[in-house]
Amino acid sequence: MKSILIAIVLALAVPACVSSTEYGKCIGIVDREDPKLDYKLSIWNTFLSVVFVETIILPIYVLATETKCPEGRMAE
DSSP string of 14-68? Predict the structure, then answer.
């Protein structure tokens, strides 16, 4: 029963991650930033990583793919 609850929580947590904004897709810690966009740390994705740190898989996934999200265009 415990493993079923863990699976359900993980299944609900991964889609809850923010994966894109109106300016484009979020990037991970190793991805290159677009110089034309202003990126900010995704607080929600970081929060989910901290909450689910014991699952190991979710924090690694979030850090690798969705750490920073574009918040707007850079001022010229």
Answer: HHHS--EETTEE-B-SSSPPPTTEEEEE-HHHHHHHHHTGGGSHHHHHHHHH-SE
